[in-house]
Amino acid sequence: MEPNMEYIVAQVTQKEVGRQFQVGPEIIDYILDRQKSHDLEHDQSMLDRMVDSLATTWVNASNFKVALLGMDIVSALVTRLQERFRTQIGTVLPSLIDRLGDSKDQVRDQAQSLLLKAMDQAASPQYVWDRMLAGFRHKNSRTREAVCFCLISTLNVYGAHGLTLSKVVPHICQLLGDPSSQVREGAMNCLVEIYRHVGERVRVDLGKKGLPQSRTLSLNKCLLCHSSDKNIDDDDSVDGGRSLSSSKGASSVQRTGSMRRPSKESSGAGAVDEEDFIRAFKDVPAVQIYSARELEDSMNKIREILSDDKHDWEQRVWFSIRNLWTDASFQ
């Protein structure tokens, strides 16, 4: 007996791990075989049940192999349904965003590849990113960092013209003051990548965001130190006026690489490594310390500021970095 939609949905909705491994390949084969799955597009309620179960039970599974298999099934649905999968993107996005912060590289990479494939075949990059903005505020710092990497990959594959970056930049600016240094570095890399694609107008727009002066100065240094490494069309705006070319196919998604943190060796022009990031903070007002007692007083003041949660996080971090660089020079 050939499987039908009702049978496949029953297999997707059951939660026994061993059974999931058994039926996963069968589900993928059913989806990709148009003769077997001729009823896939005609029963919307069954399709909704299938995608909901895939997102919650498979992609969000604690067993990483089940999560990978679940993303394979979702990928098959994108391949089969193309633009008809657009209505399902909101269902799978929260789970995929969670997987961007997974502890395993393989899961993070596959989640990013699936998101880029959805942008290529099911909906526009802007449509997907409008629904991904909450990822910048995710409770998991690894996810916040990974969302920055995903935006960089999106820009590398689709360019800036398919995105309204003015909607995204404020969220990235918020991450410049994130408690996690890795998230702050990821946000900085994001802004440098946007600068590579869009040009000098990014700095003008950033000047209108009301960022603290210390953060603006360090950001401008990072952007300017990479301005000679890129080719920029200054006629482009942050919003990007032209629509995404339909000539980009699935092969472009294959070129995105992994979700691993950029470095000078791997990222090419526009990357900001730890050395660049630290160097941007070294240009600070001089504070003279002439004795061990003054040094002790300065360190006590740093501790007092850091422990006071009534101060803005950016103020606490900047004050501490400034004094630490100064104190480090005391002999």
TrEMBL record:
Keywords: Cytoplasm, Cytoskeleton, Repeat. InterPro entries: ARM-like, ARM-type_fold, HEAT_type_2, TOG, XMAP215_CLASP_TOG. It is found in: Cytoplasm, Cytoskeleton. SUPFAM superfamilies: ARM repeat. HEAT repeats lie at residues 168-206. Residues 6-228 form the TOG domain. One of its GO terms (molecular function) is microtubule binding. GO terms for biological process: cell division; establishment of mitotic spindle localization; mitotic spindle assembly; regulation of microtubule polymerization or depolymerization; regulation of supramolecular fiber organization. This is CLIP-associating protein 1-like. It comes from Sinocyclocheilus anshuiensis. The lineage of its organism: Eukaryota, Metazoa, Chordata, Craniata, Vertebrata. The gene is LOC107702518.
